[in-house]
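Practice problem: predict the structure.
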Amino acid sequence: MIGTILFDVDGVLLSEEHYFDASALTVWELLISNNYLALSPEKYKTDYSPKEIKVIRETVFGKNDEVLKLMKSRGLNANWDMIYLSFGHQLIHLLSQIKEQENSRINGWLQEPINREVLLEIGSVLHNYPVNTDFNLFVADFKSSTETKQELFDYLNQLAEEKLGVKTAIFSGISALWLVCEHVCQEWYVGDENVEKSTGRPSVQLGKKGFLANETTLAAKAEIEALFSFLKESGVKIGIGTGRPELETIQPFQHLDWLKHFDLNHIVTADDVLKAEKELVERQPLSKPNPFTYIMGLKGRDTSVIDCLNTHLPIDHGEEVLVVGDSLADLLAARKMGCQFAAVLTGLSGKDARSDFEKHEADYILDNVLDIKNLIVRK
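Answer:
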């Protein structure tokens, strides 16, 4: 009997589409804006139309989001990681076009942290050569790899050695370049009003309205709320384990009037994961598919990080806990915990994800989150 349900948010309760739009806009800005590589500053602005955003996303991630789908299939779940991998790959490709002329500089850039100042320097050098981006290379380069999750970052180091002849570890882990990618993405997603609250840093580029006030639910708002009420009335405890930051979770839930159904102690977000990673650096990474997010969601945020990490796996009575997610990362986390897993087909790949979930033997495969109701026996 299911006694606790832990929900992912993106692809389960709320649409990921605006996150993917913000991700594409971030890669685009890092490449073309005067604030970064400045390859085509005349094409940059902060108020693209929906049609323009669609074109940029198809350019960066492919017409059918092939790049995103490949990353998702390898267990990469956080948009910041996807941005970093995509931009890092494109940066290596750009540098490969000037390696004969600028070998010494490239060696220098890839031995020290790449922050915004270094990107400006790289951009000023690239400006002297007829370099071009090529987003089609991503799938070809990464399909030949076997890496999954954040090991994909390490594969960037391998590509740098193959394409540039430079041995480096610069792309591994949460680097200075990763933090640049994260900050630009937050500018796009939360907008000028919330950037400093979200990141602790002011905007580099003002003028972005953000997507935060324009969330799309994956079923009717009232029907999802009715599901929460039904679960609580049935004696089922509910919680959240999401890769979203706290602001991007709590604010939409408040706006949708869903927050009243949850105990804040059992809403775990990316902020909790980042805090834990800073506290115990040697245990990184703790983002999904590491089960930390769901373990804390189950035990509560008032549980110490070390107690969560020292939880014996599989957990006791794991069959009574159901994790609801849309990605392989969610499934792998649930498996490590010994919990049941319900895959919903409302994520990036939609119904095409069914075969992957069947292959990995998800306990349940549901058309949408509302079908959870059929799994519950009233107490």
